[in-house]
Protein 1
Amino acid sequence: MVRQRAATMILLALLVLVLTACSKASEVTEATPPQQDTPVEESGTQTIEHLKGTAVVPQKIERMVVLSAAYIDHMLTIGEKPAGVNVEVRYGGDYLPYLADQLAGVPTVGSADSPNLEAILQIDPDVIVIESRTAESMYDQLEKIAPTIVLGTEWLDYADDTTYWTQDLLTIAGMYNKVDLAKEKIAEVEQQAKQLKAKIEQLDQKKLAYLRVREKTLQIYAAKGHPTNTLLYDDLGFVPTSVTPAEQREDLSMEKIADVDADFVILEIDPNADEYLNNINASSLWKGVPAVGADQVYTTDSFWLFKGWGAIGRSEIINEVEEMIQ
């Protein structure tokens, strides 16, 4: 009987010890941070800050869809091929010509303003990257398909910073752990511009007008407000004409053409502007522009507006300008 009571007491004591240990283990479990608090690198994801907050995307991105010509340029600059790209409807609804060779086989997913959501869904992207203007109407719908990162702001928000075109390139490069490569590419373009600027500085006359012929009007671009403008007037050192606006492009009436005191004219022509261009060429006021008389009018298309945002495009503009001043 005594032995039985002793055994019972021992069992009770062991039970108390077990319960105490369980209680302490529970306390430890509650005090331990949950798994999602571990560093994102260890969980195979990365957190990207953007204009709409933050997005958690895979550490190794395999399928990125981009809805901006600039972001296509940025990806190709760092040796990455997009899984899907937007098109520009007003230029035929296909790849931008200067990037087309590198995009062979990449699915197109509509325009940035009106993306084809079904086409994007079929790609099953890891991440979608868009501009702020696209986000105004499409962010919520795109976010339902995949984490959506919003980059870019209005051009004038950058004030006098002429390197703002590099910001989104560096952000995208960071997602691929290729920031150093992006910086190398930026430095190469900057060096290319510096070398051409030295040649332009030797010119006796270097006033330049950057004009755009549209369907029913002629416009003159500003000295600032767009990365192509700042490339021409800041990085390359051309001098604005007396009618070149400071920050935003303006319409240029036929009568005002006589005031364009340009030694060089870059004439960007929209696809539907042939008739208005003929009217300009027939004008005696146009023929009185110094650059026209000296045969220093360089005709291009509207792709310069896209090229100015990326390292590949900027390099091509620099090459074209170098040919222009020969």
Protein 2
Amino acid sequence: MTTDPILTQIRLLKKLTSSERKLVDFLSSNASRTVFENVTSLAKKTGVSKATVVRFIAKLGYGSFSDLRRELQEDARLMFESLSQRYTTKKRELENANDDILSLNINNIISNLQHTNATIDRKSFHLAAEIIQEKNGNLYACGFRTSYALAQMFHIMIKRIRPRSFLIGPQITMIPDMLLDVTGEDMLVAVFRHPYARQTVRIAKRFSDAGARILLVTDSYCSPLADLATIQIVVTAEGLSIFRSFTAIAAVLEALHLAVLRLSDQNPNERLEAAAKLFKEFDTYCDNQRNRDASPIGVLKKHAAE
């Protein structure tokens, strides 16, 4: 059990005292720091008694604070696992698995999707959609390395319905130009997967310093950006390869786009038609008629006509 289920357990608690709420707020916002705490320091930082901390840990199902901290440390260990260590582990698992790799991978993806659906905080998810839909400022998306493709996918979808949406990267030398006019009215959607890119941290720091809101879509509550995020959506990403799975996080980004679309009170047809006109002008996509003419059947028809 890692940090994700721990926070899921917290959300399932029906009744919380004011002191327990303080502990929940601390654990939710400072998961990455909790591995360095103890009962005394946690009580001091939240302003509750040590007895309250002990009772709350028991309420979560742990025998002691050390048990909780051990789970958080395990999550941190997985986060900092090197690619060579991951290769050794995953190669051994694949060698011991059955021969049907396709089914194995699809079942893993289904498991990730089910876990993501069960654990994502709907309140945070819908709040993120509402902020994106506000259109008060600019919306920026960023991600680097394997996260860039996901950020680009989200940008392409959201730009069709949300004006003033921009994708940061991948040209690092141009990043300062894009960050020059960031204000507190803007929002950053940062796709942040392990191994975590330093450029994303620097970009998020710039938005935070400007007072802008940050939506962090990540794979761990213990990521280096956890403390800067206004809203954090943690998506299960365990895979069978040295790379973590992309499917669940892609599904969440797609769902976020759908949530914004549902909230939108403006008809996007004019914007979509303008985009289609530009795509045609710049010859962005293959023309259907041209494809039919170039197909084997089209070539045969042309020769027959001649």
